[in-house]
Amino acid sequence: MRLLEKAPAKINLALDVLYKRPDEYHEVEMVMTTVDLSDRIELSPLREDEIRIVSENRFVPNDQRNLAYQAAQLVKNTYQIREGVEIFIEKQIPVAAGLAGGSSDAAAVLRGLNRLWDLELTAEQLAELGTQIGSDVAFCVYGGTALATGRGEQIRELPTPPPCWVVLAKPSIGVSTQAIYQNLNLNDVQHPDTQKMIQALEDGDYNEMCARIGNVLEPVTSQLHAEVGQIKNHMKEFGADAVLMSGSGPTVFGLVQQESRAHRIYNGLRGFCEEVYVIRMLGNRHALD
Ligand SMILES: C[C@](O)(CO)[C@H](O)COP(=O)(O)OP(=O)(O)OC[C@H]1O[C@@H](n2ccc(N)nc2=O)[C@H](O)[C@@H]1O
Ligand SMILES: Nc1ncnc2c1ncn2[C@@H]1O[C@H](COP(=O)(O)OP(=O)(O)OP(=O)(O)O)[C@@H](O)[C@H]1O
């Protein structure tokens, strides 16, 4: 039997950091939503008791460094599974981009192995396992739109954002999430108003959603990589209603309502940035089915 799972990317509509915790993490308040740019994960049982990662993308590790591998290992150890699995990863999400590609692959493996090995675990149990792998994995287990608090693992479902188009542009640099958090100076941040963003989603108010986007990590990454600011300026010039860096970056996203405008921004950016995508927000949990 071969099993397929979709692993969509996320963007952060709002990302606030409240304080640095005694452990190595920061207390965050994030509004996250899934977008229609997905890796495809294929799980096949193996006779041998091993985890095998197969991917044609040269940036994707094929050993324990892969978050998908770590997810399979965790399930095997926790539930004493003596069977093996081959995990084929067809990568569409840019790597080290701030789009949670690795986390979403790990979440897809958790969902998929739950089916493959008939474990009958709830989404909450899968999210709890995911948290042992990374802060974004719990959100990716559910998908949709959510408020993520704690270090990112406490998830409260939010309404689907008003329909719109998302233009993603990833400069050809990779960013270390850890380095960005380390460089954040909490005495000098402009906090987004998370409650007003949540209200905008509850009201289905596109203009207010655009007005409320914000990410405290954006100035940190922009300081290190000028490309982020340059892409933001281009997106605004070409007519995006709102422009923000996702996660720790360096990917920048722009929001628009009309498809034609999304393509105008795409065409304008193509000469400047190699990786540009025009996609839709998914934003509801059923989009994973
Ligand atoms: C930037 C975001 O992607 C936004 O969604 C997340 O906050 C980061 O999620 P992630 O990549 O799953 O992060 P993890 O793999 O758990 O952590 C990587 C590193 O980022 C830093 N980190 C991460 C999450 C958090 N709330 N505080 C932190 O300070 C820590 O130094 C940690 O060692
Ligand atoms: N399945 C995977 N897909 C992509 N990268 C992976 C995977 N597993 C591990 N990695 C490693 O993780 C690093 C970060 O990649 P990833 O694409 O997950 O970053 P990201 O989108 O910035 O994550 P986040 O938004 O959660 O911070 C890469 O440098 C890569 O070596």
Automatic annotation (TrEMBL):
ATP binds at P94, V95, A96, A97, G98, L99, A100, G101, G102, S103, S104. It is an enzyme of class 2 (transferase). It catalyses: 4-CDP-2-C-methyl-D-erythritol + ATP = 4-CDP-2-C-methyl-D-erythritol 2-phosphate + ADP + H(+). Pfam families: GHMP_kinases_C, GHMP_kinases_N. One of its GO terms (molecular function) is 4-(cytidine 5'-diphospho)-2-C-methyl-D-erythritol kinase activity. Keywords: ATP-binding, Isoprene biosynthesis, Kinase, Nucleotide-binding, Transferase. This is 4-diphosphocytidyl-2-C-methyl-D-erythritol kinase. It comes from Pontibacillus marinus BH030004 = DSM 16465.
